Amino acid sequence: MPTATINGFHMNYELSGKEGAPHLLLCNSLASNLTMWDWQIDAFNAHFHVIRYDRRGHGKSGVPQGPYTIDDLADDVIGLLDHLGVAKTHFCGLSLGGMTGQKLGVRNPDRIDRLILADTGAFMGPSVNWESRIETARAGGMAATVDMTVDRWLTKPFQERDRAGTEKVRAMILSTPPEGFIGCCQAIRDMDQREDIKAITAPTLIICGEEDPSTTPEMARFLQASIPGAELVLLPDAAHFANAEQPEMFSRAVLDFLGTA
Predict the structure, then answer these.
(1) Residue 220 is inside which H or E element, if any?
(2) CA 178, CA 47: separation in Å to the nearest integer?
(3) Considering only CA atoms, which of 191, 219, 180 is closest in space to residue 64?
(4) Average pLDDT in the 52-59 region?
(5) Would you say residue 228 has pLDDT above 70?
(6) Can you state the angle between helices 146-153 and 163-175, rounded to 10 degrees?
(7) Which of 159, 173, 186, 213 has the smallest CB count inside 10 Å?
């Protein structure tokens, strides 16, 4: 996979799909990497020139010293788009990816065409919860976080039904550098975009798993109410990684919103 030097670190990224088609940039959750979109990539490649990347501190990208901010993560997206010569793109982000998308929608409206915010929130307090996760990772590495994270991300029926998919998610978490995880936890801890998102002008779709305990349907409805004209799709029998638990429904919601049907 190609790499680029973005904001002082090497970023791992991948291009796929239809050259000359509109761009669709996919932005990952905390403690994952670009392979989290494997459940969608074939469907998206059929219609778009797809950009996937590993955020700072994750996957095969470098791990700059933290703490990070949501602005830093948004700057990294703009840096990658500039590197690729992409003036404007559709954007789909899940969890921390969606938090990054909110910042871009507010701050860089000229670079975002349509915005998909999946299983995400504008505020993730109280900060003590994030301090606890940070201390857990500092003390025990990602192995100390993996079980509780999988249980938040995937419903028990999915874990029992799809052992390979569950193991894929576990492997992403375990392979995340603890320093990168901690830096991004600090970005989430310090984030509050509840007022800012009212300024988003891009057409916006919000997707949420009906059983998401982390970024709940209530939080998704808050996003819908705050972002002018936003649409909301709730996916049944899915928790935080709704794209993995309901891949066909997730892909169809995105493609319908982007006008490919």
Answers:
(1) helix 217-226
(2) 36
(3) 180
(4) 98
(5) yes
(6) 130
(7) 213
Domains of the chain, residue spans: 3-257
Query: pTM to 2 decimals?
Result: 0.97
Cis amide leading into 126 (omega within 30): yes
What residues are paired with 89 via a beta bridge? 112
The DSSP letter of residue 22 is: P
Burial 35-74 (b: 16+ CB within 10 A, else e): bbbebbbebbeebbbbbbbbbbbbbebbbbebebbbebbb
Average pLDDT, the chain: 97
Q: Are 1 and 60 in contact (CB under 8 A)?
A: yes
- Check residue 261 and give its pLDDT: 53
Residue 214 scores a pLDDT above 70 = yes
Q: Which CATH superfamily is domain 3-257 in?
A: Alpha/Beta hydrolase fold, catalytic domain (3.40.50.1820)
185 token code pair: 């936890």
